[in-house]
Design a protein that fits this description.
heterodimer; A: 69 residues; 4 helices; B: mainly alpha; Rna Polymerase Sigma Factor, Chain: A; 9 helices; elongated
């Protein structure tokens, strides 16, 4: 975790980040090699939710739907 | 659309795959609307709709992309019905108050979250799909029902805005969901409450 946090610090010059944003092309995902300093943080926000334990409501809902069939 | 009768095993596969994408639906929804409780409502709505439409899912294609389309449409519909408006203040308070004690979310992640919410929805969405969800520009374009160039441009603008806010430390002072404006209002309220400033009569 700390690696990604460190990368969120203002270490990268803004120019480099901008250039990265503008040269994003083809099928490459945005978080490429020239990703700006915050790119890991964005991924981290998403991944943190993915890794959260799932509240029961979702399993309950799907089971209920399944029972109806 | 097709009259192909789904077998019991098709249905079991569908349920398994749908269950598997729930964490991703939650992450996408939370990124879109910023509020954990609303995001989970949105996911439930998505699951209901996906379930009802399961005959239209083509086995072998991406369940995540298919359900993201459903979630996105549900979100846009809710937005149009004003369901998420006026909740922003509460959401700021909530995020400050519910920051889990032991977790110690790095300050930069909290900034990230705020910065993301200041983006116009269509840019936020494009950035979430590509930068967080790992979709290609082509896949994101398909999910959003727009041209690949449009997605590229939205992602580019979103990235530039985040770079300005996060790497250059410049949070904006306008936009509907503006955190800066919200803070300014609170500061003004504080000032009025503490006896300074003149409050205008309301009408």
């Amino acid at each position: 975790m700390s690696g990604a946090i460190a990368k969120l610090d203002k270490k990268k010059p803004a120019d480099a980040s901008r250039r990265g944003a503008q040269t994003g092309h083809g099928k490459a995902p945005a978080a490429g090699k020239e990703a700006p300093g915050w790119a890991n943080g964005l991924k981290q926000l998403y991944d943190e939710v993915v890794k959260e334990p799932l509240p029961d409501i979702f399993d309950d809902l799907l089971s209920k739907l399944d029972d109806k069939n | 659309m097709d009259s192909h009768q789904r077998t019991a095993s098709d249905k079991a596969d569908f349920k398994r795959e749908l269950t598997g994408v729930v964490p991703h639906l939650r992450a996408f929804a939370r990124g879109l609307c910023g509020r954990p409780d609303m995001a989970d409502d949105l996911v439930q709505e998505t699951l209901l709709k996906a379930w009802a439409a399961q005959d239209r899912f083509e086995p072998g294609t991406s369940m995540r992309a298919w359900t993201f389309v459903i979630l996105r449409n549900a979100y846009l519909t809710d937005m149009r019905r004003n369901r998420f408006r006026g909740d922003y203040d509460e959401s700021v308070a909530e995020r400050i108050l519910t920051a889990p004690a032991g977790q110690e979310e790095p300050i930069h992640l909290a900034d990230m979250r705020r910065a993301l919410l200041t983006l116009p929805p269509e840019r936020r969405e494009a950035l979430l799909l590509v930068g967080a969800g790992g979709f290609s520009y082509e896949e994101a374009a398909e999910i959003c029902g727009c041209a690949v160039g449009t997605i590229k441009s939205r992602v580019g603008r979103a990235r530039a805005a985040l770079t300005t806010m996060l790497d250059e430390g410049d949070m904006p002072r306008r936009s509907i969901d503006d955190v800066g404006a919200h803070r300014a209002i609170l500061e003004e309220l504080d000032s009025v409450a503490s006896g300074h400033g003149v409050s205008e009569p309301t009408r």
